[in-house]
Description:
There is one protein chain. By secondary structure, this protein is α/β, with parallel strands linked by helices. It has helices at residues 13-24, 35-50, 53-64, 72-87, 149-153, 198-215, 243-246, 256-266, 323-342, 364-372, 404-411, 433-437, 453-456, 469-488, and strands at 91-100, 103-105, 109-115, 121-122, 124-126, 137-143, 163-165, 219-223, 251-254, 275-280, 283-285, 289-298, 303-313, 349-356, 380-385, 393-396, 443-448. Strands 4-3-10-6-7-8-9-5 form an eight-stranded mixed beta sheet, with helices on one face. The chain is elongated and about 90 Å long. The relative contact order is 0.16.
Amino acid sequence: MARRPLAAVRWLAPLVCVVTVALIVPARPAEPLSEEVAQDRKVITEVKEHSQALANLTYLCDEIGPRLTGSKNLRRANLWAAERMQDYGLVNVHQEAWEMPEGWERGPATARLLEPDTGRTLSIASYGWTVGTNGKVQGDVVILKASNSKELEAYKGKLKGAIVLTRPPVEKLPPDDIVKLPQTDPMPPVDPGMRRNFGEQRAFMKELNEMLANEGVAATMTDAAKPYGLLVTTGGWNGKDRPSAVNRIPRLFVAHHDYAMLYRLASRPSPARTRLELDVRNTFVPGPVAVYNTVGEIRGSDKADEIVVVGAHLDSWDLGQGATDNGTGTVVLLETARALARSGVKPRRTIRFVLFTGEEQGLHGSAAYVERHKEEMARVSACLAHDTGTGKVIGIDARHRPILQPLLAQELVSLKELGVTAFDTPFIGGSDHASFERVGVPGLLVRQEGAGYRLNHHTQLDTIDRALEPNLLQGSQAMSVTALRLANRDGMLPRDKPTRDPSPEE
Ligand SMILES: [Zn+2]
Protein backbone atom coordinates (compact mmCIF):
# COMPACT_ATOMS: atom_id res chain seq x y z
CA MET A 1 0.00 0.00 0.00
CA ALA A 2 1.34 3.48 -0.95
CA ARG A 3 1.28 6.43 1.45
CA ARG A 4 -0.54 9.61 0.42
CA PRO A 5 1.91 12.56 0.03
CA LEU A 6 1.34 15.64 2.27
CA ALA A 7 -0.74 18.41 0.63
CA ALA A 8 2.01 21.04 1.10
CA VAL A 9 4.46 19.15 -0.96
CA ARG A 10 2.01 17.76 -3.45
CA TRP A 11 3.59 19.74 -6.28
CA LEU A 12 6.84 18.12 -5.46
CA ALA A 13 5.28 14.71 -5.60
CA PRO A 14 7.02 13.36 -8.65
CA LEU A 15 10.39 14.49 -7.37
CA VAL A 16 9.68 13.28 -3.83
CA CYS A 17 8.67 9.95 -5.20
CA VAL A 18 11.87 9.58 -7.08
CA VAL A 19 13.92 10.69 -4.09
CA THR A 20 11.89 8.50 -1.78
CA VAL A 21 12.30 5.47 -3.91
CA ALA A 22 15.93 6.15 -4.49
CA LEU A 23 17.01 7.22 -1.01
CA ILE A 24 14.51 6.88 1.80
CA VAL A 25 12.74 3.61 1.16
CA PRO A 26 15.14 0.79 1.78
CA ALA A 27 16.59 -0.77 -1.33
CA ARG A 28 14.04 -3.58 -1.04
CA PRO A 29 10.51 -2.19 -1.54
CA ALA A 30 7.74 -3.64 0.66
CA GLU A 31 8.13 -7.31 -0.14
CA PRO A 32 5.29 -8.76 -2.16
CA LEU A 33 3.93 -11.98 -0.76
CA SER A 34 5.87 -14.92 -2.04
CA GLU A 35 3.83 -17.33 -4.11
CA GLU A 36 4.01 -19.84 -1.25
CA VAL A 37 2.77 -17.44 1.38
CA ALA A 38 0.00 -16.26 -0.94
CA GLN A 39 -1.18 -19.86 -1.27
CA ASP A 40 -1.02 -20.36 2.50
CA ARG A 41 -3.23 -17.29 2.89
CA LYS A 42 -5.73 -18.68 0.41
CA VAL A 43 -6.31 -21.87 2.38
CA ILE A 44 -6.31 -20.05 5.72
CA THR A 45 -9.00 -17.71 4.39
CA GLU A 46 -11.01 -20.56 2.90
CA VAL A 47 -11.23 -22.20 6.35
CA LYS A 48 -12.00 -18.91 8.06
CA GLU A 49 -14.84 -18.02 5.72
CA HIS A 50 -16.43 -21.36 4.89
CA SER A 51 -15.56 -23.87 7.59
CA GLN A 52 -17.83 -26.90 7.87
CA ALA A 53 -15.87 -28.37 10.78
CA LEU A 54 -18.41 -27.81 13.54
CA ALA A 55 -21.37 -28.79 11.38
CA ASN A 56 -19.55 -32.01 10.48
CA LEU A 57 -18.67 -32.74 14.11
CA THR A 58 -22.27 -32.18 15.15
CA TYR A 59 -23.52 -34.63 12.56
CA LEU A 60 -20.85 -37.18 13.38
CA CYS A 61 -21.49 -37.07 17.13
CA ASP A 62 -25.24 -36.52 17.34
CA GLU A 63 -26.52 -38.42 14.30
CA ILE A 64 -23.93 -41.15 13.81
CA GLY A 65 -22.77 -41.47 17.41
CA PRO A 66 -19.81 -43.29 18.93
CA ARG A 67 -17.90 -45.41 16.45
CA LEU A 68 -16.60 -48.57 18.01
CA THR A 69 -14.39 -50.55 15.65
CA GLY A 70 -16.48 -53.11 13.78
CA SER A 71 -19.79 -51.45 14.70
CA LYS A 72 -22.54 -50.38 12.33
CA ASN A 73 -22.06 -46.78 13.51
CA LEU A 74 -18.48 -46.89 12.27
CA ARG A 75 -19.61 -48.28 8.92
CA ARG A 76 -22.10 -45.40 8.60
CA ALA A 77 -19.32 -42.97 9.48
CA ASN A 78 -17.12 -44.47 6.72
CA LEU A 79 -19.85 -43.89 4.15
CA TRP A 80 -20.62 -40.41 5.41
CA ALA A 81 -16.95 -39.39 5.36
CA ALA A 82 -16.54 -40.69 1.82
CA GLU A 83 -19.57 -38.65 0.78
CA ARG A 84 -18.04 -35.52 2.34
CA MET A 85 -14.77 -36.18 0.52
CA GLN A 86 -16.59 -36.54 -2.78
CA ASP A 87 -18.60 -33.37 -2.17
CA TYR A 88 -15.37 -31.50 -1.57
CA GLY A 89 -13.95 -32.63 -4.90
CA LEU A 90 -11.46 -35.25 -3.76
CA VAL A 91 -10.65 -38.00 -6.23
CA ASN A 92 -10.02 -41.71 -5.86
CA VAL A 93 -12.38 -41.78 -2.86
CA HIS A 94 -12.76 -45.35 -1.64
CA GLN A 95 -12.88 -47.71 1.32
CA GLU A 96 -9.98 -50.03 2.06
CA ALA A 97 -10.95 -53.15 3.97
CA TRP A 98 -8.89 -54.83 6.64
CA GLU A 99 -9.92 -57.68 8.91
CA MET A 100 -10.33 -57.78 12.65
CA PRO A 101 -10.41 -61.15 14.40
CA GLU A 102 -13.69 -60.56 16.26
CA GLY A 103 -16.21 -57.79 16.82
CA TRP A 104 -17.41 -56.84 20.29
CA GLU A 105 -20.56 -55.31 21.73
CA ARG A 106 -20.84 -53.75 25.16
CA GLY A 107 -23.86 -54.79 27.18
CA PRO A 108 -25.07 -53.53 30.55
CA ALA A 109 -22.67 -53.91 33.49
CA THR A 110 -23.80 -53.70 37.10
CA ALA A 111 -22.09 -54.26 40.44
CA ARG A 112 -23.88 -54.36 43.79
CA LEU A 113 -22.35 -54.51 47.23
CA LEU A 114 -23.69 -57.55 49.12
CA GLU A 115 -21.41 -57.43 52.14
CA PRO A 116 -21.36 -55.10 53.97
CA ASP A 117 -25.02 -54.85 53.01
CA THR A 118 -25.31 -51.13 52.39
CA GLY A 119 -27.30 -51.50 49.18
CA ARG A 120 -24.68 -49.54 47.29
CA THR A 121 -24.31 -50.07 43.55
CA LEU A 122 -20.96 -49.27 41.95
CA SER A 123 -20.23 -47.40 38.79
CA ILE A 124 -18.33 -49.74 36.43
CA ALA A 125 -17.42 -50.18 32.75
CA SER A 126 -15.88 -53.13 30.93
CA TYR A 127 -12.57 -53.01 29.17
CA GLY A 128 -13.26 -53.44 25.47
CA TRP A 129 -12.99 -56.91 23.93
CA THR A 130 -13.24 -58.70 27.25
CA VAL A 131 -15.76 -61.36 28.24
CA GLY A 132 -18.82 -60.75 30.42
CA THR A 133 -19.73 -62.67 33.57
CA ASN A 134 -22.12 -65.02 31.82
CA GLY A 135 -24.99 -64.20 34.15
CA LYS A 136 -25.01 -62.95 37.72
CA VAL A 137 -22.03 -63.94 39.84
CA GLN A 138 -21.17 -63.30 43.45
CA GLY A 139 -17.66 -63.19 44.82
CA ASP A 140 -15.37 -61.99 47.57
CA VAL A 141 -13.26 -58.94 46.86
CA VAL A 142 -9.58 -59.82 47.29
CA ILE A 143 -6.58 -57.51 47.17
CA LEU A 144 -3.65 -59.14 45.43
CA LYS A 145 -0.26 -57.79 46.46
CA ALA A 146 2.45 -59.38 44.39
CA SER A 147 5.17 -57.96 42.21
CA ASN A 148 7.03 -61.15 41.30
CA SER A 149 6.42 -64.84 40.68
CA LYS A 150 7.42 -65.78 44.19
CA GLU A 151 4.88 -63.47 45.80
CA LEU A 152 2.26 -64.74 43.38
CA GLU A 153 2.77 -68.28 44.68
CA ALA A 154 1.10 -67.31 47.95
CA TYR A 155 -2.22 -66.80 46.15
CA LYS A 156 -2.31 -70.06 44.22
CA GLY A 157 -5.42 -72.09 44.88
CA LYS A 158 -7.06 -69.25 46.81
CA LEU A 159 -8.69 -67.08 44.17
CA LYS A 160 -11.46 -69.18 42.67
CA GLY A 161 -14.53 -67.00 42.16
CA ALA A 162 -12.79 -63.94 43.66
CA ILE A 163 -13.08 -60.37 42.43
CA VAL A 164 -9.48 -59.22 42.39
CA LEU A 165 -8.04 -55.74 42.92
CA THR A 166 -4.43 -55.67 41.74
CA ARG A 167 -3.37 -52.18 42.83
CA PRO A 168 -4.34 -49.54 45.35
CA PRO A 169 -6.48 -46.63 44.25
CA VAL A 170 -4.47 -43.75 42.81
CA GLU A 171 -3.62 -41.49 45.71
CA LYS A 172 -4.16 -38.10 44.26
CA LEU A 173 -6.17 -37.36 41.17
CA PRO A 174 -4.12 -34.94 39.13
CA PRO A 175 -5.89 -31.89 37.78
CA ASP A 176 -7.62 -31.89 34.47
CA ASP A 177 -5.06 -32.00 31.70
CA ILE A 178 -2.56 -34.28 33.29
CA VAL A 179 -4.94 -37.01 34.36
CA LYS A 180 -3.44 -40.13 32.84
CA LEU A 181 -5.17 -43.18 31.53
CA PRO A 182 -4.71 -46.18 33.74
CA GLN A 183 -2.55 -48.99 32.40
CA THR A 184 -4.24 -51.34 29.99
CA ASP A 185 -3.15 -54.33 32.03
CA PRO A 186 -3.78 -54.86 35.70
CA MET A 187 -0.48 -53.83 37.16
CA PRO A 188 0.88 -55.17 40.38
CA PRO A 189 1.74 -52.56 42.97
CA VAL A 190 5.33 -51.81 42.13
CA ASP A 191 7.81 -51.31 44.89
CA PRO A 192 9.17 -47.85 44.12
CA GLY A 193 12.61 -48.83 45.35
CA MET A 194 12.78 -51.58 42.79
CA ARG A 195 13.74 -50.71 39.25
CA ARG A 196 12.52 -53.29 36.82
CA ASN A 197 12.72 -53.04 33.14
CA PHE A 198 9.75 -52.92 30.86
CA GLY A 199 10.31 -56.45 29.52
CA GLU A 200 10.33 -57.95 33.00
CA GLN A 201 7.20 -56.04 33.86
CA ARG A 202 5.39 -57.28 30.77
CA ALA A 203 6.45 -60.84 31.45
CA PHE A 204 5.15 -60.61 34.99
CA MET A 205 1.86 -59.11 33.85
CA LYS A 206 1.43 -61.98 31.43
CA GLU A 207 2.15 -64.47 34.18
CA LEU A 208 -0.29 -62.70 36.49
CA ASN A 209 -3.07 -62.71 33.91
CA GLU A 210 -2.55 -66.37 33.12
CA MET A 211 -2.56 -67.24 36.79
CA LEU A 212 -5.79 -65.29 37.39
CA ALA A 213 -7.47 -67.01 34.45
CA ASN A 214 -6.31 -70.45 35.59
CA GLU A 215 -7.48 -69.79 39.12
CA GLY A 216 -10.94 -69.00 37.74
CA VAL A 217 -11.37 -65.54 39.25
CA ALA A 218 -14.77 -63.94 38.68
CA ALA A 219 -13.35 -60.59 37.54
CA THR A 220 -10.54 -58.09 37.99
CA MET A 221 -11.12 -54.44 38.80
CA THR A 222 -9.08 -51.32 38.06
CA ASP A 223 -9.39 -47.76 39.33
CA ALA A 224 -10.73 -45.53 36.53
CA ALA A 225 -8.45 -42.90 38.10
CA LYS A 226 -10.46 -39.89 37.00
CA PRO A 227 -12.33 -37.34 39.07
CA TYR A 228 -16.06 -36.57 39.17
CA GLY A 229 -17.11 -40.23 38.99
CA LEU A 230 -15.93 -40.53 35.40
CA LEU A 231 -15.58 -43.96 33.93
CA VAL A 232 -13.07 -44.90 31.29
CA THR A 233 -12.48 -47.67 28.82
CA THR A 234 -9.66 -49.09 26.75
CA GLY A 235 -8.51 -52.52 25.60
CA GLY A 236 -8.08 -54.46 22.40
CA TRP A 237 -6.13 -57.31 20.90
CA ASN A 238 -2.73 -58.09 19.46
CA GLY A 239 -2.35 -58.89 15.80
CA LYS A 240 -4.43 -61.89 14.88
CA ASP A 241 -5.12 -63.03 18.45
CA ARG A 242 -8.74 -63.89 19.01
CA PRO A 243 -9.50 -61.59 21.94
CA SER A 244 -12.21 -63.92 23.29
CA ALA A 245 -9.57 -66.63 23.62
CA VAL A 246 -7.01 -64.35 25.26
CA ASN A 247 -9.12 -61.99 27.41
CA ARG A 248 -10.80 -64.71 29.44
CA ILE A 249 -11.48 -62.72 32.60
CA PRO A 250 -14.11 -60.00 32.88
CA ARG A 251 -12.08 -56.83 33.39
CA LEU A 252 -13.78 -53.80 34.81
CA PHE A 253 -12.96 -50.19 35.43
CA VAL A 254 -14.52 -48.82 38.61
CA ALA A 255 -15.15 -45.10 39.16
CA HIS A 256 -12.43 -43.78 41.44
CA HIS A 257 -14.64 -43.04 44.48
CA ASP A 258 -16.17 -46.52 44.35
CA TYR A 259 -12.82 -48.20 43.82
CA ALA A 260 -11.36 -46.39 46.82
CA MET A 261 -14.31 -47.58 48.93
CA LEU A 262 -13.89 -51.19 47.79
CA TYR A 263 -10.20 -51.08 48.57
CA ARG A 264 -10.87 -49.73 52.05
CA LEU A 265 -13.48 -52.37 52.69
CA ALA A 266 -11.32 -55.21 51.39
CA SER A 267 -8.40 -53.98 53.52
CA ARG A 268 -10.28 -54.66 56.76
CA PRO A 269 -8.86 -57.57 58.73
CA SER A 270 -10.78 -60.84 58.70
CA PRO A 271 -13.37 -61.96 59.52
CA ALA A 272 -14.77 -58.88 57.71
CA ARG A 273 -15.79 -59.86 54.19
CA THR A 274 -16.42 -57.73 51.16
CA ARG A 275 -18.73 -59.35 48.63
CA LEU A 276 -20.13 -58.13 45.34
CA GLU A 277 -22.69 -59.29 42.86
CA LEU A 278 -21.71 -58.65 39.24
CA ASP A 279 -23.68 -58.86 36.03
CA VAL A 280 -21.69 -57.96 32.93
CA ARG A 281 -23.07 -58.80 29.52
CA ASN A 282 -20.62 -58.38 26.68
CA THR A 283 -20.89 -60.13 23.35
CA PHE A 284 -18.23 -61.15 20.86
CA VAL A 285 -19.20 -61.02 17.20
CA PRO A 286 -17.57 -64.00 15.47
CA GLY A 287 -14.90 -62.89 13.02
CA PRO A 288 -13.11 -62.18 10.93
CA VAL A 289 -15.03 -58.93 10.57
CA ALA A 290 -14.30 -56.50 7.71
CA VAL A 291 -13.47 -52.94 8.82
CA TYR A 292 -12.62 -50.04 6.52
CA ASN A 293 -10.22 -47.13 6.27
CA THR A 294 -11.72 -44.27 4.23
CA VAL A 295 -9.36 -42.76 1.67
CA GLY A 296 -9.52 -39.81 -0.75
CA GLU A 297 -6.95 -37.59 -2.41
CA ILE A 298 -6.02 -34.40 -4.16
CA ARG A 299 -3.81 -35.43 -7.06
CA GLY A 300 -0.47 -33.76 -7.33
CA SER A 301 0.93 -32.21 -10.49
CA ASP A 302 4.59 -32.78 -11.47
CA LYS A 303 5.30 -34.99 -8.45
CA ALA A 304 1.98 -36.81 -8.29
CA ASP A 305 3.66 -40.15 -7.53
CA GLU A 306 4.92 -38.85 -4.24
CA ILE A 307 2.48 -38.62 -1.37
CA VAL A 308 1.82 -36.62 1.77
CA VAL A 309 -0.57 -38.54 4.03
CA VAL A 310 -2.92 -36.57 6.26
CA GLY A 311 -4.39 -38.93 8.86
CA ALA A 312 -6.82 -39.13 11.74
CA HIS A 313 -8.79 -42.00 13.20
CA LEU A 314 -12.50 -42.24 12.63
CA ASP A 315 -13.18 -44.93 15.20
CA SER A 316 -13.82 -44.09 18.85
CA TRP A 317 -14.61 -45.64 22.17
CA ASP A 318 -18.25 -45.96 23.06
CA LEU A 319 -18.90 -44.45 26.49
CA GLY A 320 -19.33 -40.93 25.08
CA GLN A 321 -19.71 -39.66 21.51
CA GLY A 322 -16.09 -39.92 20.43
CA ALA A 323 -16.10 -36.12 20.08
CA THR A 324 -12.52 -35.25 21.00
CA ASP A 325 -11.10 -38.71 20.42
CA ASN A 326 -11.19 -38.40 17.59
CA GLY A 327 -14.18 -36.64 16.07
CA THR A 328 -12.16 -33.43 16.22
CA GLY A 329 -9.26 -34.94 14.24
CA THR A 330 -11.75 -36.41 11.77
CA VAL A 331 -13.47 -33.10 11.02
CA VAL A 332 -10.16 -31.23 10.95
CA LEU A 333 -9.00 -33.71 8.32
CA LEU A 334 -12.18 -33.23 6.30
CA GLU A 335 -11.94 -29.45 6.62
CA THR A 336 -8.30 -29.59 5.52
CA ALA A 337 -9.38 -31.60 2.48
CA ARG A 338 -12.18 -29.15 1.74
CA ALA A 339 -10.01 -26.06 2.11
CA LEU A 340 -7.22 -27.41 -0.08
CA ALA A 341 -9.61 -28.66 -2.76
CA ARG A 342 -11.82 -25.57 -2.81
CA SER A 343 -9.20 -22.85 -2.58
CA GLY A 344 -7.79 -23.78 -5.96
CA VAL A 345 -4.21 -24.37 -4.85
CA LYS A 346 -2.33 -26.93 -6.91
CA PRO A 347 -0.08 -29.16 -4.83
CA ARG A 348 2.86 -30.78 -6.60
CA ARG A 349 2.69 -34.01 -4.64
CA THR A 350 -0.49 -35.96 -4.06
CA ILE A 351 -2.12 -35.21 -0.71
CA ARG A 352 -3.90 -38.31 0.51
CA PHE A 353 -6.44 -38.16 3.33
CA VAL A 354 -6.87 -41.34 5.32
CA LEU A 355 -9.42 -41.89 8.07
CA PHE A 356 -8.07 -44.89 9.93
CA THR A 357 -10.06 -47.33 12.04
CA GLY A 358 -9.19 -49.78 14.81
CA GLU A 359 -6.84 -47.16 16.22
CA GLU A 360 -8.17 -47.46 19.73
CA GLN A 361 -7.57 -51.19 19.95
CA GLY A 362 -3.94 -51.03 18.85
CA LEU A 363 -3.42 -48.92 15.68
CA HIS A 364 -4.75 -51.83 13.62
CA GLY A 365 -6.16 -49.84 10.68
CA SER A 366 -3.02 -47.80 10.10
CA ALA A 367 -0.85 -50.91 10.46
CA ALA A 368 -3.02 -52.58 7.81
CA TYR A 369 -2.74 -49.47 5.61
CA VAL A 370 1.06 -49.39 5.86
CA GLU A 371 1.25 -53.11 5.08
CA ARG A 372 -1.09 -52.85 2.11
CA HIS A 373 0.81 -49.86 0.70
CA LYS A 374 4.30 -51.04 1.60
CA GLU A 375 5.63 -50.71 -1.97
CA GLU A 376 4.64 -47.07 -1.83
CA MET A 377 6.18 -46.15 1.53
CA ALA A 378 9.45 -44.99 -0.07
CA ARG A 379 7.41 -42.32 -1.84
CA VAL A 380 5.48 -41.11 1.20
CA SER A 381 7.05 -37.89 2.43
CA ALA A 382 5.33 -37.91 5.83
CA CYS A 383 2.21 -38.83 7.72
CA LEU A 384 0.75 -35.80 9.44
CA ALA A 385 -1.80 -36.67 12.13
CA HIS A 386 -4.25 -34.89 14.43
CA ASP A 387 -5.36 -36.86 17.48
CA THR A 388 -5.22 -35.07 20.81
CA GLY A 389 -8.57 -33.43 21.02
CA THR A 390 -9.88 -29.94 20.74
CA GLY A 391 -6.85 -27.95 21.98
CA LYS A 392 -5.23 -25.34 19.79
CA VAL A 393 -2.38 -26.69 17.64
CA ILE A 394 0.87 -25.23 18.96
CA GLY A 395 3.50 -27.30 17.22
CA ILE A 396 4.51 -30.41 15.36
CA ASP A 397 6.35 -33.14 17.25
CA ALA A 398 9.73 -33.57 15.57
CA ARG A 399 12.21 -34.00 18.40
CA HIS A 400 12.72 -37.60 17.38
CA ARG A 401 13.90 -36.38 13.97
CA PRO A 402 16.26 -33.48 14.70
CA ILE A 403 16.97 -32.98 10.99
CA LEU A 404 13.37 -31.89 10.49
CA GLN A 405 13.19 -29.25 13.19
CA PRO A 406 14.93 -26.32 11.43
CA LEU A 407 13.45 -27.39 8.14
CA LEU A 408 9.87 -27.26 9.44
CA ALA A 409 10.50 -23.99 11.27
CA GLN A 410 11.74 -22.42 8.05
CA GLU A 411 9.18 -23.90 5.69
CA LEU A 412 6.12 -23.33 7.84
CA VAL A 413 6.49 -19.55 8.28
CA SER A 414 2.77 -18.98 7.88
CA LEU A 415 2.05 -21.11 10.92
CA LYS A 416 3.56 -18.47 13.17
CA GLU A 417 0.55 -16.20 12.85
CA LEU A 418 -1.61 -19.19 13.82
CA GLY A 419 0.42 -19.68 16.98
CA VAL A 420 2.16 -22.84 15.82
CA THR A 421 5.80 -22.47 16.72
CA ALA A 422 7.14 -25.61 18.45
CA PHE A 423 8.94 -28.16 16.30
CA ASP A 424 11.09 -29.77 18.95
CA THR A 425 8.42 -31.36 21.11
CA PRO A 426 8.88 -35.03 22.00
CA PHE A 427 7.30 -37.82 20.02
CA ILE A 428 4.02 -39.06 21.43
CA GLY A 429 3.24 -42.50 20.10
CA GLY A 430 -0.17 -44.02 20.48
CA SER A 431 -1.68 -42.82 17.26
CA ASP A 432 -1.59 -43.75 13.58
CA HIS A 433 1.51 -41.73 12.67
CA ALA A 434 3.46 -44.28 14.74
CA SER A 435 2.59 -47.00 12.19
CA PHE A 436 4.38 -44.92 9.52
CA GLU A 437 7.28 -44.14 11.82
CA ARG A 438 7.75 -47.89 12.26
CA VAL A 439 8.58 -48.26 8.54
CA GLY A 440 10.80 -45.17 8.44
CA VAL A 441 8.30 -42.59 7.18
CA PRO A 442 8.34 -39.42 9.29
CA GLY A 443 5.29 -39.60 11.54
CA LEU A 444 4.31 -36.10 12.60
CA LEU A 445 1.62 -35.63 15.21
CA VAL A 446 0.50 -32.08 15.77
CA ARG A 447 1.12 -30.89 19.32
CA GLN A 448 -1.97 -29.41 20.95
CA GLU A 449 -2.93 -27.58 24.09
CA GLY A 450 -4.65 -29.84 26.60
CA ALA A 451 -8.15 -28.33 26.57
CA GLY A 452 -9.49 -31.11 28.79
CA TYR A 453 -8.35 -33.97 26.57
CA ARG A 454 -6.75 -36.00 29.33
CA LEU A 455 -9.87 -35.64 31.38
CA ASN A 456 -12.48 -36.37 28.73
CA HIS A 457 -11.16 -38.86 26.27
CA HIS A 458 -12.28 -42.49 26.62
CA THR A 459 -14.89 -41.34 29.17
CA GLN A 460 -18.63 -40.78 29.02
CA LEU A 461 -17.83 -37.03 28.87
CA ASP A 462 -16.21 -37.23 25.45
CA THR A 463 -19.15 -35.36 24.00
CA ILE A 464 -19.54 -32.57 21.49
CA ASP A 465 -20.08 -29.84 24.07
CA ARG A 466 -16.36 -30.24 24.87
CA ALA A 467 -15.33 -29.14 21.36
CA LEU A 468 -14.02 -25.62 20.81
CA GLU A 469 -14.90 -24.36 17.35
CA PRO A 470 -12.16 -21.70 17.01
CA ASN A 471 -9.58 -24.44 17.58
CA LEU A 472 -11.16 -26.70 14.97
CA LEU A 473 -10.63 -23.89 12.47
CA GLN A 474 -7.13 -23.10 13.67
CA GLY A 475 -6.22 -26.80 13.52
CA SER A 476 -7.62 -27.09 10.00
CA GLN A 477 -5.63 -24.04 8.92
CA ALA A 478 -2.44 -25.41 10.42
CA MET A 479 -2.95 -28.83 8.84
CA SER A 480 -3.81 -27.32 5.43
CA VAL A 481 -0.74 -25.11 5.32
CA THR A 482 1.54 -27.88 6.53
CA ALA A 483 0.20 -30.46 4.06
CA LEU A 484 0.44 -27.98 1.20
CA ARG A 485 3.99 -26.93 2.04
CA LEU A 486 5.16 -30.54 2.39
CA ALA A 487 3.50 -31.33 -0.93
CA ASN A 488 5.19 -28.41 -2.68
CA ARG A 489 8.75 -28.44 -1.43
CA ASP A 490 11.43 -29.46 -3.89
CA GLY A 491 12.32 -32.63 -2.05
CA MET A 492 10.49 -35.10 0.14
CA LEU A 493 11.25 -34.76 3.82
CA PRO A 494 14.65 -36.27 4.56
CA ARG A 495 14.32 -39.48 6.51
CA ASP A 496 17.78 -40.03 7.87
CA LYS A 497 17.60 -42.31 10.82
CA PRO A 498 16.43 -40.46 13.87
CA THR A 499 19.34 -39.86 16.20
CA ARG A 500 16.99 -40.11 19.13
CA ASP A 501 14.65 -43.00 19.77
CA PRO A 502 11.03 -42.20 19.21
CA SER A 503 10.35 -43.13 22.78
CA PRO A 504 6.94 -42.10 24.01
CA GLU A 505 6.84 -39.08 26.25
CA GLU A 506 4.47 -40.69 28.69
ZN1 LIG B 1 -7.38 -41.02 19.52
